[in-house]
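Field: COMPLEX_INPUT
Field: COMPONENT_COUNT = three
Field: RESIDUE_TOTAL = 612
Field: MODE = joint
Values follow.
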Amino acid sequence: MGNRSVVPYGPQHPVLPEPIHLDLVLEDEKVLAAIPSIGFIHRGLESLTSKKDFNEMVYVAERICGICSFMHGMGYCMAVEDIMNVEVPRRADYLRTIWAEMSRLHSHLLWLGLLADGFGFESLFMHSWRLREKILDMFEASTGGRVIFSVNTIGGVLKDMPADMLNDFVRQLNEMEKEIREMTDIFLTDYTVKSRLVDVGIITGEDAIRRGAVGPMMRASGINVDMRKNGYAAYNELDFEVITSNKCDSYARCEVRIGEIFQSIDIIRQCVAKIPDTEINTKVTGMPNGESFIRVEQPRGEAFYHVRANGTKFLDRFRVRTPTFANIPALTQTLQGCQYGDVPLLILTIDPCISCTER
Amino acid sequence: MGQFLPFTKQVIKNLFSEPATTQYPFVAREYPERTRGHVDINKDGCILCGMCMRSCPPGAITVDRAGKTWSINRFDCVQCGYCVEKCPKKCLSITPGYQEPGPEKFAYTVEVPYEPPKPAAKPAAPAQAASAE
Amino acid sequence: MQELKKDLYLIDKAELLTVIMEKKNALWRLCQICCSYPKAENHFEVTYSFANGQDIANYRLIAEREEEVPSISRVYKSAIFYENEMHELWGLHVENIKQDFHDKLYRIDVETPFLEKEGE
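Field: COMPLEX_OUTPUT
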């Protein structure tokens, strides 16, 4: 038996974009157990329901996270619309879908960059972030914000995208697709990348279910779970296949996310081709009363929204279970028995978003 | 395997292509017209109703009916645009151009030249009601 | 078991473990556990959500302020985090969690649980 020691890991660590703390129990270089603790950026956004009315909460929900901000706003609006029985106009559904897929695109490009940075491939990091920047510019041109879009409202969306803007986005995405393909081929074929990813952090499908993993983490273990197949927003009219992989390791997670990048581009193209010409929002009157459970597929996995309203303008409870929170048990599982040097990489493969987790 | 110096293509491309970044302080960034930079007010349209103040999520806007001023603390503003949406007279707008950073927070105040129609409005209302009867 | 609305069932404490075991054997995954304290009702409502593919089932347990609820962390390991979170932020007493963080899952420097403060 080797020497046992406990290494405090984080909250400040060069590879972590956001603060999470892990206590790693090591035996020589091998990790025996990992005990996470969170809360360094806990802001108590859920309890703001007692101070902000349900319309203002849209803007609070968006600020849960800087990367899936659009989807948080959308999930919250969908939950309230479900309670109030509001039918969202189709065009708004399509616009939401387009923005949601663009969010997925930029989130996955961001993640690829961070992963490359995590295993020390700096130039690949620069390239994926260069491509991501163009998507942020598209967001700014269409919504007015690069990170927080504030276009969701209960009953639809606030801003429309004219046809020439949509066509211009598709043209830009078509151009980018080649560049992205060039870059992701390096992730999938390069020897150095593979040697860091293949057979690292294996989690089997059954374990993933037992640990309640979600999103790409689950799909990389061969489980076909994608909330988009529930058909919220415009997804019921779109044609796409859930991307899964049976390899169960870090490489599989990378592969699934890369597959989703191209899938997102394809979904945006389909949306632009099919988008109907209707109103973009409906007038909503009255106060919500009742409760609703909504699941939305975010870039990181399934997010769960529970809204409970009591007929006043303040909600009783607004609960968000973010994908990273659900992936933490799976993370501790993959960390058990891994090498100390792989810890940063394994944390990155769940695509952690800590500000989401803590709300 | 099978590839000799696979990065040469990228190196040559990088050598002869423009940088992806701009020379920021020397070349100004151009914002698209939809950019939510700051909230602007058309003071002639404002009726000091206070809708913007009540709806502002971070509470950055203050409307003073007695002093006839509308003020915004741009450092608290989160540029969500909810006030613009709520404004009944559509005199608020959100335009490009971000607030410059400063050593301390301060409020930007506008004097609103709005005259509330006070004495004339009151007798008018019962008169209407009377005619309706 | 009583159906409150679509996919939402009210259960009592005695039923909880049977329901959970049933779900576990059918390979459902634990989606989340949500604790809430509606002001009008003055009791805790703990909602357990399970998902299997596109299906979802929510089970609600009602607990009084000082009542203890059984832990399901021995059946579903991922429940450890949700139960610790509920105990820490809401002050709900959960019996015998498999891995008790002793209110140190969230490292925040304000006093928890938050509910106590509201009652003052």
